[in-house]
Amino acid sequence: MNPIVTSILSTIIEHIFEAMMAPTPAPPPSTPPGIVRPALQNGPLAVMGPPSNGFAQFNHQTLRLSASLQIRDTQNRIVMSGTLQQPVPVLYKLDEYGTVQRVWVLTREEAEIADQLIKQRLPAAPPKQ
C-alpha cells in the first residue's frame, strides 16, 4: 500500500478516536440564581395563559398577540406559541399598536427577582390625607 495513503488513513482514525474519547461538552448553563436576564428588568410581570387564536390571557386581561411575536423560554430560546400549554409567569412587551410583541417565560427565581426590581422602580404612593 502507498505510504501516503496509510499515513492519511491512520491520521483520520486517530482523529476519530480522539473525538470519541473527548468529554462531551456540558450544556450551556441556565441563568445563575439571583440574576435576571437583562431584557427582563423592565416590563409588565404577569401570568400568561396558553395562546389561542392570536390572543392570550395576561393575568385578568386578554391581549392580542403581534404577528411578529417572539416568545423566549427560560433558557432564552425562541419557542413557538403552541409549546405553552399551561399558565406560566412572564414579562412581556407591547408594540406601538398595543399588541404583545415579546414574551419572556420566567423561572420561579426570575419571577421573584423581576417582581422585586419592578417594585423598586415604582414611585412611592403619595401619603393619604
Oligomer: single chain
Structural class: alpha+beta
- The helix/strand series, from N terminus to C terminus, equals HEEEEEEH
How far apart the termini lie comes to 99 Å
> Which percent band covers the strand fraction?
25-35%
Q: Biggest β-sheet, characterized?
A: 6 strands, mixed
Which class of the domain at 38-121 in CATH terms? Answer: Mainly Beta
State the shape.
elongated
Q: How many DSSP H or I helices?
A: 2
CATH architecture of the domain at 38-121: Beta Barrel
Which helices and strands appear, and what pairs or packs with what?
Layout: H1 3-21, E1 45-48, E2 55-58, E3 61-72, E4 78-79, E5 88-94, E6 100-105, H2 108-121
Parallel strand pairs: 3-6
Antiparallel strand pairs: 1-5, 2-3, 3-4, 5-6
Task: Offer a few descriptive terms.
129 residues, six-stranded mixed β-sheet
Short description:
The chain is α+β, with helices and mostly antiparallel strands.
Summarize the structure in words.
The protein is α+β, with helices and mostly antiparallel strands. It has a domain at 38-121: Beta Barrel (OB fold (Dihydrolipoamide Acetyltransferase, E2P)). 26% of the residues lie in helices and 27% in strands. The chain contains two helices and six strands; from the N terminus they run αββββββα. Strands 1, 2, 3, 4, 5 and 6 form a six-stranded mixed beta sheet that branches. Strand 5 and strand 6 form a beta hairpin. The longest helix has 19 residues, at 3-21. 16% of the residues are buried. The mean pLDDT is 80.
